[in-house]
Structures are given as C-alpha cells and as structure tokens.
C-alpha cells in the first residue's frame, strides 16, 4: 500500500509541474485578435530590394473591426518571413506558442499606441538576410503580452510580399588582406624547408 | 672494444658498441661504433633535462616544463592540434550569422558539417607517412601553414557551395592530431605514453570547446568596433588563421623531430635510416589491428566530433535556451577533454602496470561502452538537468576512451607507427562523417533519436576490442601464446622486417622498442626482465 501512495504522490507532483509549466508558457498566436490593425508596407522601388539601401514605407492604423483596443499600450512592428523563406530552415519556423515562434525576428520599430494613423520610413538593416518578407504589427498590453496584430499580407501570407537581397559582407580590402596573409604563410613554410635542406646538405659534406 | 654494460638489463642495450654486434651498411652508430650522437654508456643521457631510456625517449612527463626536446615537442604538438580544432569548428558557433549571410538551408549546413570532418580522413592517412619521411615538425608545419589560406579565404565565400568547399579544406588540418601523437610517441617511452598522448589529444580536442566561446566573443568585439555582422564574422576568421601561421613558425623554430636532433640532420649523418613508403604502408595494411582501431576510434572520437557540430543546436531547440547558453553547454562538452582524455590515457597506463596490454584493452572497452550508454541516456533525457548530466558523463566516457585507444596504438607497430596513427585518426573522421550523414542530415530522425542511435551503434562496435590480440601479451579473453619464440616482443616487432633488411640491421630501432615494450606484460615484466638475458638474433657474449 505504501508503494501505491508514493506512486500516486509522485504522479500528482508530475502533473502539478506540467500544469504550472504550461500556465506561464502557453500564450498562443491563435488567441490573438486578427486584423485589429491595418498595416501596409510599400517598397521604395520595384523589384528586389537591397538591404542597407532601400526603404519601406510602413503605415498602421486601428481597424474598424478591432475589439480589444482598450488594452493596447504599445505597437511592435516587425519584419516577418514569408513561407517560401522558411522552407528547410527550422530556425525560422512558425509556431503557435508565441515564445517559440521564430518567424518574426527582425524588429522595425516600437511605438506607444496612438489612436491616429501612424507611419514610418524604414531603411532595411544591413543584417537582413536574403528572403521574402511581409510586415506585422503586434499590439501589446501593459503587461507586455501581445493581444492583437495586423499584417501587410493576407492570412495565407501570399499577397503583397516583397523580396530583399542581403549585402554580401565582402570587402575588397578584406579580400586583399586574405590573399596577402595566405601567400605569407605558404612562402614562410617554403623558406624554412629549403633552408633546412640546404643546411643538412652542408652538414653532410663536412 | 670494451663495452661498459654487461648485464643486458632493461633500458641499457648497447647495440653497435661491442664488436660482436652486426656491422650496418647504414651505420646506426657511426663508423667507429661511436659518434657524437650515439649512445655512450653513461654520458649522453645527462644532456637531457628528463631521464630517458635507451631510445632517448623521456621516462617522465612534466607538463609544466618546456625543456628541449621532449616537453617542448609535447607543448608545440598539442597547441598545434588545439589551434586546428579551433579553426575546423570555428564556423559552428557562428552558423546563425553565416546562414543568414549566405542564405543557407538546413541541408547546406548539415552537408558543410560532414565536409568539415571528411577532408581529414585523407590528410590523416597521408600525414603519418609524411611524418615518417620528413619528421614531425614539417608534418605539423605543413598542415598548419598550408591550411591557413583556407581559413583566410572565408572572406571570399558568397554561397552554400563556397562555404562547403572552404570548410572542407580547413578540415584537412585536423591531421595535426596524427602529427602530434606521432611526435609524442617518438619522444616519450611506452610506460607513460598513454598519459602523454591523453594529455596532448585531450588538450588539443579542447579547441572544439574553446572555439564555441572564442569565435562569438571575437565576432562581438569586431561588431562593437563598427563592422556590420555579415562582415564581422569574416574578419573573425582571421584570428584562427593568424594563430595557425604563428604556431607553425614556432614549431619549425623551437621544435625538434627526434630526441637526438632533427630528422634531416640525423638521416644525412646516417643515424636514422630512411624507410620506403610502400613498405611502411604495406605493414600497416597487413596488420588486422589497424582496421579494428580504425572502427573503434570512429565510434569514440567520431561521435565526439559529431556532437561538437550538433549539440549546441540540440540544446537550443529542445530546451528553448538562449543561443549563448546553448553555446556554453556545447563548450563544456568540448572542454571536459582537458581532464577526461588524459585520465583515459592514465587509466590505460595504470592498468598496464598491473595487467599489461590486457589491462589496456579492458580499460578501453569499459570506457567506450559506458560512453555509448550515456549517449543513449542523453537522447532519452527530457529535462534539462538530466540532459546536462548525461551529456557530461557521456563526454567523459567517450573522451577517456579516445585517450585509452592511443595508449594502445603505439604498440601495434613500430615500423609503421606513423601510418597506423594516421589510419586510426582517419577512422575518427570517417565515423564522424558517417554518423552525421546517417542520423543528422535528414529529417528521418529527430535529433534526440539520432543521439540514442549513435550510442547504441557505439556500444555494438566497441565489442570489436575483444578481437585485438597480441601473441606476446594476449587479449581481453585470451592470454599470451605459450610458444616460446612467438611470445617474445622482439619476434612481433622484428616480423615487420624481411631477412634481407634484418641483415642490414635496419630493424635495430624496432628491437630497441621491443625491449622497452616489455612493460606491457604487466606485473610479470619486473620478474621476467631481470632473469632472462637480452634476446638477439645473434647470441651475445654476456
């Protein structure tokens, strides 16, 4: 009987852990109010945008269908990956649990909530990777929890997407330095080798 | 011609000093039996900082000393290897930046990981021969200074293909492991070689852990200095590149190939005979133990390298850790090499003291099997503390097993030591490439299952230790052969030379080694050595 009691007690403890674990972590994306904000993102020119150079003209305003407006304290605007840029890249995966979701890692701007329509001229950062994107704005309450959002594309994330080409990160000066040091390395080795062979020959002839 | 030593006691054989020895066509001792480099009965050992045996190999290990030539060789050797480990795995902690810069997919990253360890399969094979022919210093310096350009060329990489090629080429320098263990094997005597190789290998392997902390730190400093991330990571690679060049130059200027001098000098003097590459290779391939060691090392060092490439990402994903926390855990896996591998080598040496080679084999089996067991546990662990505990126990088991294997390698062959070290080392890389390809490059297995599976396969393949048998010392389940002739160490090592070569006296080095290896009989060596006279092909007048 004692065994049964211990077993039951441990089961209860495990269950409690699970519940408490879940309670703090499980804020879901599907719980957020969709379309609470109307967001547009207009690229500064046609075609593939260059990171570090081209701009996005972003606007957001409260949608007429929004219901949770009273809770809005801050608006967080983020750059998000379109599905095509998530293929075979699990580090960009979309997850329902908000703390696990990795599809919107790039922050654009954070502003206190204002009833009037807002806009922002965003220059694409130089660390934005090559890919296809859209813009999403989260409405955050006073506790820092997301309550609603709006995005520049439709629910299927297929319209009004834009493409970005990352900077290469290469520089001519870097290339030249690389070649110089490589040549030095090989030459130094050869010099040592030839020198030692010469010395050994001299030793032998003695 | 009088010879000073008549008892023929262990460690003082005087080949070439008495008139009764063979006359050699490549004079081992110089024309008159004595040259400035030959063994005089009680003097030449005094010129060494450490006590030495008849081959002038050090009999003690003093890690805090830098004395020429033994301890200096040790330190240059392990630091070279350490630097190469840093370079080879330098990309791993920076992958989150690199994958954004180069637009890599998971497949690209996995393939590059396989490529990074594959190059060394071939270079580890070749470097043994290079060391046999050119000496350990040039073997090491070639690797360091010829792969430094590959490290620098990360600044040119623009896509997945370039990334894979560069990682492949950098990976060639992992052959410094072989040049390092070759160097220590010619500098240190058999009784302590397990510990010495364990320290050298372990401290070198630590590079795989240190790089997980070093590269992000260097990257961060460069970013703070003003560079954009996609340029900063390229500049960061200059650090391991510089290190390689500097250490390469130090190896050439401060190091020495052999206890008595540099190889080219000794060869020209006729003190060390040159050997034929084909012969050296042939005797390595003929020895079945080479293949067993190849596989065994693939499932100790091999899985260790695989873990170096996947563990950070595993902890990051499975337990939702921050990137730098996952990196620190990954670093501690590699850093435990600092003591784990030396302890493995030391355990091998200790067990050899009591049980001889049989003790070494059992030690290896125990360590590697427990490593595999803890790896299975790591894959099963669902809570972070248990995962970390099992990972640390796994790291200890598998790294100590690496140390224990290289307590055995120096005894498998004397003539082909370089090639066999190389083949064993290559087995490590082969195992790593194979396990990464089979379990971690596709979506067939969850990473956790992959971990458990490599643990299971490791335990199965470790059973092969039972097949390593030495006629003079025995194996895990069998004792030494009772045949009087075959049970002598000299017979085993002299068998690698043909009669014609023996007549020329080319096997003298092997005989010296055989005599020093009598310690592998275990406790019996102490009694055997004193009573039986030195066995030689010609009866000597004692």
Largest sheet of chain A: 6 strands, mixed
Fraction in helix of chain B: 55-70%
Name the helix and strand elements of chain B from N-terminus to C-terminus, one letter apiece.
HHHHHHHHHHHHHHHHHHHHHHH
Structural class of chain A: alpha+beta
The named CATH superfamily of the largest domain in chain B: MFS general substrate transporter like domains
CATH class of the domain at 30-165 in chain A: Mainly Beta
**Proportion of residues in β-strands of chain A:** 25-35%
Q: What is the CA-CA span between the terminal residues of chain B?
A: 14 Å
CATH-defined fold name of the largest domain in chain B: Growth Hormone, Chain: A
> How far from one another are the termini of chain A?
94 Å
C-alpha Rg of chain A, in Å? 28 Å
Of all protein chain pairs, which has the greatest interface, and how many residues does each chain bring to it?
A: A-B, 40 and 43 residues
- Measured as a percent range, the helix fraction of chain A is 25-40%
Order of helices and strands of chain A: HEEEEEEEEEH
> Mind telling me which CATH architecture of the largest domain in chain B this is?
Up-down Bundle
pLDDT < 50 runs, ≥5 residues of chain B: 1-42, 529-542
Tally of helical runs of chain B: 23
Beta-strand content estimate of chain B: under 5%
Q: Averaged pLDDT of chain A, please?
A: 86
- Structural class call of chain B reads mainly alpha
Organism (chain A): Raphanus sativus (Radish)
Family (chain A): Belongs to the NAR2 family.
InterPro entries (chain A): Transptr_NO3_Nar2
Transmembrane segments (chain A): 176-194
